[in-house]
Amino acid sequence: MANTETPRILITRRWPEAAEARVAALGDVSFRAPDTPMSHDEWIAAAEGHDVIMPTVSDSIPAAFYDAARGKVRLLASYGVGYNHIDVPRAREAGIAVTNTPGVLTDCTADLAMGLLLAAARRIGEGERELRAGRWDGWRPTHMIGKKVSGATLGIVGFGRIGQAMARRAHYGFGMRVVFQNRSRVDAETCASAGNAQQLDSLEAVAGEADFLSLHCPGGPETAGLIGGRVFEAMTPGAILINTARGDVVDEPALFEALETGRLGAAGLDVYVGEPKLDPRFLRYDNLVLAPHLGSATDATRMAMGDRAIDNLEAFLREETPPDLVT
Ligand code: DGY
Q: What is the pLDDT of residues 149-178, one digit of tens each?
């Protein structure tokens, strides 16, 4: 954008206070009042009056927005690392740049994945529910037996920043052996520094060796339904699935089927198809640990995400290539 213009910027959801204060100084900034996803009509209206829109991962952007925004909106600077809520080719075609916030939520997301793994393996949610309901009748040798984590094999799907952070936690913290599947070949040095992780040739091979399978690949059309019947069939019986990636990576009907047959022993989930509305079947299983998309939800990380989104905006306003331009 030319330096002389005052950019009109829309922030679609509430941000940490300090991030809102920082962005407020950068132009004519509208902070949308309701902290809810924008409706179809709001998106179309937003296309009219803004040069920059800063959405987030739970905003669902209607297809009609891109045509409406052509020649008007110049940047979608998203607050969040995943960008499957944005149709990037369509945005590019409409002349809209897209940025995200990678790197700053790696540790917190991997921490949550490890937490879900431990909670699902050791039945922590189920135990707490029993205790709170006054149903606990004391220690006994056969009470609420879980699955041992230390020394077990962790399978990772998607060995990017977060997958590698998960591998380090599992290997150095819990002595786990790590195997993984990744779209492209990962170099030996990266594998060595991420807990001597071993890349296997197929998803099924990873599923077949894993006691725990943790998903860290991006969402979107390329990975939709990736964890389906074939993968559940290949899994070690009783294995545990962890998903902090995106809901649509898992074929949910196939997951329920695998829980019914016992092929899947338990799961720790942070993301769901169509969230925040969940398939009611999720609530039926005591061996599911269910979190409401909390991967990045710490004060430090949510502030860092704001800073990263604003760094991208500032670079764009200086007419430089934003550091996190999504290609
Ligand atoms: C992201 O940024 O993609 C995360 O899902 C938010 O926690």
A: 999 999 999 999 999 999 999 999 999 999
Q: Which residue's CA lies nearest to atom 5 of ligand 1?
A: 82
Residue 306 domain-assigned (yes or no): yes
The residue whose CB lies within 8 Å of the most ligand 1 atoms, and thus the one to mutate among 161, 249, 296, 298, is 296
Query: C-alpha angle with apex 312: 308 to 318, nearest 5 degrees?
Result: 140
DSSP-derived letter for residue 56 is: B
Looking at the fold, whether 275 and 306 belong to one and the same domain comes out as no
> For residue 174, how far is its CA from the centre of ligand 1 (angstroms)?
25
Query: Is there an atom of ligand 1 within 6 Å of 295 CB?
Result: yes
127 & 85 share domain: no
Q: Give the C-alpha separation, 22 to 28, whole Å.
A: 13
Residues of the chain with pLDDT below 70 are 1-4
Residues 264 and 126 in one domain: yes
Is 3 part of any domain? no
pLDDT value for 149: 98
Same domain, 96 and 116: no
> Is the distance from the beta carbon of residue 82 to the nearest atom of ligand 1 less than 6 Å?
yes
Beta strand 52-54 with 75-77: parallel, antiparallel or unpaired?
parallel
- Its domain, for residue 76, covers 8-104+299-317
pLDDT tens per residue across span 44-94: 999 999 999 999 999 999 999 999 999 999 999 999 999 999 999 999 999
Is residue 286 within 8 A of residue 263, CB to CB? The reply is no
Report if pTM > 0.85.
yes
* Number of structural domains the chain divides into: 2
Using alpha carbons, select from 295, 259, 291, 275 the residue that is nearest to residue 166: 295
